[in-house]
Specification:
Layout lengths: L9 H4 L3 E2 L17 E7 L2 E7 L2 H12 L8 E7 L12 E8 L2 E2 L18 E2 L5 E7 L10 E7 L2 E7 L2 H11 L6 E8 L10 E9 L22 E2 L5 E7 L1
Antiparallel strand pairs: 1-6, 2-3, 2-8, 4-5, 4-7, 9-10, 9-14, 11-12, 11-13
Protein name: BP74 N-terminal domain-containing protein
Keywords: Signal
Organism: Virgisporangium aliadipatigenens
Amino acid sequence: MRKSRIALTLAAVAAALVTATPQAAVAAPDPLPTAIVATFDVVGETFRVEFDDPNEIEKVYAAAAAKDGEQYPFPIGTIDWSGPGVNTGYPWHLKDATMVDWAIEWCDGRPSMVVAGVWGPPTYCPWGAKVVQIEAVNPRIAAVDPVVATFDVRGQALRVQFTDPNAIADLYDVEAGRASMFPMGRIVWGETQVNLGYAWHLADAVMVEAAAEVCDGRPSDIVEGKWKPANFCPWSAKLTHITKG
């Protein structure tokens, strides 16, 4: 089970805490989703958090089932400024998120208040966050079939085969609008049945949120003897469709 990065005792910070009445467990779906994205409402603003720990997922469902006037757990997590991830509409997302019954006051606020250079705490913990939607997302499982993803890179088509389960799950997250990522892989020279129209294809492909500029470009820029990087990572690649392959 993932642990919150805030480790404080009630005795030491009693004056700075907001508490909640313990809540009876609410039965989650059976089987429990491997991962979920929960949408929370905070004073009329919404933000989204991914959970993949079974204990935390159960707490999310418990919070969603709370009746008006009942106390319920709320999310806390470390702010990751690398991109929105599942938290579309914001330049950040929460990682290592857990559901808690109390937290220190200085990480409370509305999602719109979390601004780089202005928001001081490394964590975010909106006390009044209410679960308004729960979505099951693609589980990171070991046994999945390979897929071929087609991308548009500034008007040029790029086709990439993905075999890694995590990369495939990332692809479906991008397709569903839960993440903003682009492909990166090792260039292998030679005719291919995947990246049609080119004398190369990408191997060991993954989906990433950032990469070194040196491997960015268009598919037509990759010419043997002229393209120096070992990898290709087109930042502007837009996923157009996914097929089994």
